[in-house]
Design brief:
Strand content: 15-25%
Distance between the termini: 49 Å
CATH architecture of the largest domain: 2-Layer Sandwich
Shape: elongated
Number of domains: 2
Strand order of the largest sheet: 1-5-6-11-10-9-7-8
Radius of gyration: 28 Å
Structural class: alpha+beta
Helix content: 25-40%
CATH class of the largest domain: Alpha Beta
CATH superfamily of the largest domain: Bira Bifunctional Protein, Domain 2
Length: 421
Amino acid sequence: MLLTQCPKGTRDVLPQDSYRWQYLESKMRAAAAAAGYREIRTPVFEHTELFLRGVGDTTDIVQKEMYTFKDKGDRSITLKPEGTAGAARAFLEHNLYADALPCKMYYLDAPVFRYEAPQAGRLREHHQFGLECFGAKEATVDAELILLAYRLLSGLGVSNLSVNINSIGCPRCRPVYHAALKGFLAGKVDSLCADCKSRYERNPLRVLDCKVPSCQEQVADAPSMLDYLCDECRAHFSQLQDCLNLSGIPYRVDSRIVRGLDYYTKTVFELITATKDGNLTVCGGGRYDNLIEQLGGDPMPGVGFGMGLERVLMLLEQEGIALPEPPLYDVFVTYMGSHQSEAFALVEGLRAAGLRADMDHCGRSLKAQFKYANKTGAAVTATIGDEEAANGAVRLKNMQTREETTVPVADAAAEARRLIG
């Protein structure tokens, strides 16, 4: 029944799996904080015009993949297909440009919606970790972001990582390249797919990003943007390579990277990992020095990246990397007979002392309670029987070492901590 099935391209995160997400999120937050990035949370939907002006109406995202609808006020609304445009809108709306720059922000577990065929690690609703930096023009920030992503992923255990970088120039030098690329493609237009025939006229750079094999063959010998960079873009790209060389991480220049969004300028990059099914892009980003101006603000450089959480978790699973699962409880309280009330009071006292604690709420026998406590992985059990209840005491047991001790209820939390170690 559709009533009991989630929509195609979406997935539930079940209670027994959520620790993996929480562990990954904690590592991502720590990586962002180490470089001075603070969290931003933007709405899950925005006015459609934001993406038409920011992402670009020649992109596949805008033309094919956006979830767009009219609200009850007849306004065109879109579920956000990426995170940068929303962050840029917030930067402008709240005058963050008036604060000390650069403005460094990140978003985490942010849902992103794209109507496309679900694929490995990329669903119609997926979640992104993204970093955005506004107000810094030097390539040192580009390198900072690349290194942050590389160290985060390699630290998690993702292997066979490599970094691909390119420069796609700026509004001063890109038109010259566009003319050269259109001249190269002029005799090949009939061999391009329907989408690329349209891209040829509106934005020929998009043809390089096409995934259709026949189109890839047609652009195999296309001229490189790197040969058309202006002095400023060439110097910026050189500085980026100097920083990466000093860092010692593996990277290569790939002149075919253009990324899928129209707002990129200068640096574009991807982090790739080799899998048994071929190369997989784990993280992608670049510089967008004209985005704020396109949205109505003053000129403001920007750079950032996006990383899909589902894809990272999939890679870790494929590589057999087990993320640490915390125990559900520190203490599980068991009781005999009619001592539920005393057990309940003990649970609340343990929680107030900062311990994760619970008790049986299903009327199980004492033996079944211990069996359930074992299943939960509780480090300590705390038992209240007739004798303990009469003496205001509780019997504690370390479930690993089997050490037991009986203490007054008032000392239960401290003794439980000692047993847990």
